[in-house]
Amino acid sequence: MADAVTSRESDYSQWYIDVVRKAKLADYSPVRGCMVIRPNGYALWERMKETLDGLFKATGHENFYFPLFIPERFLAREAEHVEGFAKECAVVTHSRLTLNEEDELIPDPESKLEENLIVRPTSETIIWNTYADWIQSYRDLPLLYNQWANVVRWEMRTRLFLRTMEFLWQEGHTAHASKEEAVEEAERMLDVYATFAEDYMAIPVVRGRKTASERFAGAVDTLCIEALMQDGKALQAGTSHFLGQNFAKAFDCTYTDENNEEQYVWATSWGVSTRLIGALIMTHSDDQGLVLPPKLARDQVVIVPIYFNDEQRTQVLEEAQRIQQELDDADIRVKLDADDNQKPGWKFNEYELQGVPLRIGIGPRDIENDNVELARRDTREKNIVPQDGLVARIQDTLTDIQDGLFQQALERREAHTTTVDSYDAFKDVIENEGGFVKAHWDGTEATEARIQDETGATIRCIPFDRDDEPGEDMLTGEHSEGRVLFAKAY
RNA sequence: CGGGGCGUGGCGCAGUCCGGUUAGCGCACCUGCUUUGGGAGCAGGGGGUCGCCGGUUCAAAUCCGGCCGCCCCGACCA
Description:
Number of domains: 3
Helix content: 25-40%
């Protein structure tokens, strides 16, 4: 193959970049650390967005939109929040450009802003500033809102989709009258994320709680879903935060309860980003390129016509169009590639690189025998199958691919999840095998920091479903309430 | 922020060490014919201020000085 991607074994990092670029998901942009999301990549994001948006609406949320710019003083209001984000903010200081004596374009000193504006790294502050106006009474609660937006975090080190300076995401921001209700909301939305990851993206995830050091800046509690990539590194795929009354207090957001008493509002926020595309790639794709789960593929089936002369071309295309129509009628997303400029062989390779789950090849031979050639992207199996019953067969196969991808990822995760009881064993697994490691931890930040320092592994989460199994910290021997999940992470 | 790499038609590169015809190759692109079941063949054609600025020289992609940009790898982070 002329345009092969680097193999995962020889250079995982280069493989990832090759997949992104050769599947035409994204390009580098002229701006350092930012990317151009190409139509193939954006189509994926659109499908994710549509699906998630439906799940948000189904759980009672509405969309709104807040400004890209946040007044600098807002960010300063919540102490931990500033501390967490101050290091990575883009700051707008001027409102126009002008030419200097050397004819160079510079920010016009005359136009210096009275107050700097921050390009949002997240929107809690500006939203809670407004919630303070919207909320007076317990009757105004809850507020269940979400926004689809871009945010900017000035990163040192970037990687396509996984960490770029600007990225697309959704951020849900809810306000509640009680702590219980807010906690429940944070849990509900984590569940929505987990469902989405597993049922649509075919990515098995561990649901859990972050330790204090990994918590969102300004949150009381951060819940997360963690996924394991093919190279044995963990990736945080979504977070949901119980914010307590931190932002309500910072922005003086109170309501009057049933007893006419003033109370601070309880809050949550939750988000997933285009980073999920990175997770998708690193979960399912192979050395032939992208592999997409059928539920998220823009094109679930591509039809490649094969012919040797004009007469055959007419005949084959007619047949191909008929099949296309049948599939379309059955709500299968299908593309017929009748482009005359590329040969079938070229198309086969191209659609494999782009991860289209199923390919139908149809040529004179097939027409004669009422067959088509059906090729699966995930297993790379090819079969000659009868046209009779094709729609049902394709529906079944798509389901099979979707389930198979999840199953395969789940098995890989299980195979790369190790339970250890000694620090030596821990270091050995982290160093040589990677993956998730279940081990006892004494619950202190000091121990957590030392482990990270010495091994590079962090506590990904305290899993919700961990066994009730007290023990002793592998490092300090102190009491541990149960095992936590360690891994090296993206 | 440290370490490494790279900057030459749209893309990938060679040429740079050791200065010297008209800057070359593959892919892509355009035209034509033949082709089409796993990245087609032949013929013809178009496209470059060699990242930028300065210096040395009869002569600079090549040597010297400075600057800029991007990518990769590590520490911090969705």
